[in-house]
Design a protein that fits this description.
Mean pLDDT: 88
Helix content: 40-55%
Strand order of the largest sheet: 4-3-5-10-6-9-7-8
Distance between the termini: 51 Å
CATH architecture of the largest domain: 3-Layer(aba) Sandwich
Number of helices: 10
Structural class: alpha/beta
Strand content: 15-25%
CATH topology of the largest domain: D-Maltodextrin-Binding Protein, domain 2
Number of domains: 2
Length: 296
């Protein structure tokens, strides 16, 4: 269909009224958020339904619920408005000279990024960076320019994902956890207490499969909610942790931990996430620096 013959889109105000109502499932609450009257929201949604030729909401008690058509439209408006908000916020803060805000997991922040902040400032003196901790499964929130995440493709629509490096995981432990005079062979693992995180219960089985070991014989001594806790437990000698190589580089370099059985690549990648189309000079500079440092 030629561009000139495309049907006109509904008004932005009508779509915003619908989107806010879809999120709250209450027209009065939507009106309060939009600083308009209940009647204005109701009229906008009615006009939108007439233009699209579908019913978007049904009454449900004191509120409303989405129809199948409403659910389909709400999935789109949620992503579109979220991207608009993030992009406009990024443009505004960049114009004001605000720092580039990068979020990542607390463990990656503490164990990889902070030890390299001085190097980043030397390599990229014009890049003012603000780091913030966030869980990897949290959506990219307003006020954050990009997020570092270990994730597995395919990537979702509505996001720009820059692939930085492959994830590598392996067993790490204190040197004195090995029995004196014992060879560090994988056959030793079933005799040692193993540590894992609740978010990655597949890590040990995945490593064992690639090493052609039987994972059923392994003994998980303790599970931890956060990877940082698991690594601290390994550092005090409570067991063998299964960890990403990037997060234990410094511990391996100083000899506080050893990795006698090496690391394997997983299907996951360390990635930089940002709103779709939001790549700018600062993002490219940061992505290039991360790629370079992660390969060293």
């Amino acid at each position: 269909m030629p561009p000139s013959s495309r049907p006109p889109l509904p008004s932005l105000n009508a779509l915003r009224a619908f989107d806010t109502t879809a999120r709250t499932l209450n027209m009065s609450a939507a009106a309060e958020q939009l600083h308009v009257t209940h009647g204005a929201v109701s009229r906008q949604i009615r006009q939108l339904e007439e233009q699209l030729g579908v019913t978007l909401f049904e009454r449900a008690g004191r509120g409303v619920r989405l129809t199948p058509a409403g659910t389909r439209l709400a999935d789109t408006t949620y992503h579109v408005f979220s991207q608009l908000e993030q992009t406009c916020d990024q443009l505004r803060r960049a114009a004001e000279g605000a720092p580039f805000v990068l979020s990542c997991s607390g463990s990656f922040l503490a164990r990889w990024f902070i030890p390299r902040l001085d190097q980043l400032k030397r390599d990229c003196p014009g890049l003012e960076l603000h780091l913030t901790a966030a869980d990897e499964d949290q959506p990219l929130r307003t006020g954050v320019d990009a997020a570092l995440r270990f994730a597995t493709p395919p990537w979702p629509a509505g996001q720009t994902v820059i692939e930085l490096a492959a994830e590598r995981i392996g067993p790490v432990m204190r040197p004195d956890l090995l029995p004196t005079g014992t060879d560090a062979t994988p056959d030793l693992l079933p005799t040692l207490p193993l540590l894992e995180t609740l978010s990655r219960p597949q890590a040990w089985p995945e490593w064992c499969r690639q090493q052609q070991l039987e994972p059923n014989g392994l003994h998980i001594a303790q599970s931890f909610e956060h990877l940082n806790y698991m690594l601290e437990a390994a550092l005090v000698g409570l067991g063998v942790a299964i960890a990403p190589e990037y997060l234990v580089e410094e511990d391996l370099r100083t000899g506080r931990l050893i990795a006698p059985w090496g690391f394997i690549e997983t299907d996951a990648l360390l990635t930089l996430w940002l709103p779709d189309g939001a790549t700018d000079a600062r993002t490219r500079q940061l992505a290039d620096w991360l790629t370079q440092r992660l390969s060293q």
